[in-house]
């Protein structure tokens, strides 16, 4: 059975363009949402390609929005670096025996993740009882939904949760196929513009922590790969700091939104290059919440999944 499952996963990844590479190719996911400006700048300015030249590496980018799918690709070896993952997905993956290592921080975008109700539909979390909700399972949005329901005396058993990636969830909300959707950043803005209602953001429920990650195998076998990725990540951050207006305009162009909306997302993103002790404490609290609410089955030692270079010195 395990062999069949792995074969199925491998075939699925191949069909999506994630073919297993050799030691001369660094495969990294390109995750633009919610507003991952360091990643956008890194790719658009070829910063990683320039850093990787010193190792004789080619760089292949793959657009994957789901943290859970990135974790699967890391496990199969079809992805070397997860450009941006939420720590909820990292914790869930490690709990299931798939070691995913945090190599750098990205942001703490509390206000960019939201549960959004359909136009002319429910107007509160309590009103979601018995309703259909679409969104990505195994993510910080999933955790936000569970936390919001618990806060209102409900559980996942009280709603109809339909697994969908962000674009599909947004489309389902637009066409009124679902009563609510778990959305992020630009999709939240666009949904509001079309008359949908934000029922709650993650603020006060979950502290989203976005990170760069890799598999334990890549971390052990290719420490120099990790080094050049972090260098490119830091170079992107430095460029953003020195060219903020230009960076926001670039983000707006890539995301297909106005500069005004891009500025809002920039202000809400709370970018960081490294994690701190508050993030570690927050992850420990997340683990307990997930166990209590059936999102994960096993304890995780956070200190074992965060590389020293991912922490503030």
From TrEMBL:
Q: Does the keyword Signal apply?
A: yes
Task: Give the signal peptide as a residue range, or say none if absent.
Answer: 1-21
Q: In which domain of life is the source organism classified? A: Bacteria
Coiled coil (UniProt feature): none
Q: What sequence ranges are listed for the domain Solute-binding protein family 3/N-terminal?
A: 36-247
What SMART domains does this protein map onto?
PBPb
What cellular component GO annotations does this protein have?
membrane; periplasmic space
- Give the InterPro entries listed for this entry: ABC_SsuA_sub-bd, Solute-binding_3/MltF_N, SsuA/THI5
Protein's UniProt name:
ABC transporter, substrate-binding protein, aliphatic sulphonates
Organism, scientific name: Escherichia coli O81 (strain ED1a)
């Amino acid at each position: 059975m395990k062999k069949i499952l792995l074969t199925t996963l491998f075939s699925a990844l191949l069909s999506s363009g994630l073919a297993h590479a050799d030691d001369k190719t660094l495969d990294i996911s390109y995750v633009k949402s919610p507003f991952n400006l360091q990643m956008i700048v890194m790719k658009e300015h070829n910063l990683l390609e320039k850093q990787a030249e010193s190792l004789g590496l080619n760089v292949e980018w793959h657009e994957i929005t789901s943290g859970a799918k990135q974790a699967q690709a890391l496990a199969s070896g079809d992805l070397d670096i997860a450009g941006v993952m939420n720590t909820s997905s990292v914790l869930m993956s490690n709990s299931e025996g798939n070691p995913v290592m945090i190599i750098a921080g990205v942001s703490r975008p509390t206000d960019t993740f939201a549960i959004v109700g359909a136009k002319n539909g429910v107007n509160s979390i309590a009103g979601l009882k018995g309703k259909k909700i679409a969104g990505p399972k195994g993510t910080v949005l999933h955790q936000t939904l569970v936390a919001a329901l618990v806060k209102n005396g409900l559980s996942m058993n009280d709603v109809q949760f339909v697994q969908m990636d962000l674009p599909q969830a947004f489309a389902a909300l637009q066409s009124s196929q679902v009563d609510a959707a778990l959305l992020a950043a630009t999709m939240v803005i666009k949904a509001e513009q079309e008359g949908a209602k934000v029922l709650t953001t993650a603020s006060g429920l979950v502290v989203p922590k976005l990170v760069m990650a890799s598999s334990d195998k890549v971390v052990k076998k290719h420490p120099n790969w990790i080094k050049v990725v972090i260098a490119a990540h830091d170079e992107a951050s430095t460029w953003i700091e020195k060219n903020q207006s230009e960076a926001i305009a670039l983000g707006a162009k890539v995301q297909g939104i106005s500069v005004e909306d891009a500025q809002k997302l920039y202000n809400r993103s709370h970018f960081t290059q490294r994690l701190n002790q508050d993030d570690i404490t927050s992850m420990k609290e997340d683990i307990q919440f997930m166990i209590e609410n059936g999102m994960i089955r096993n304890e995780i030692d956070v200190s074992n999944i965060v590389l020293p270079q991912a922490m503030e010195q």
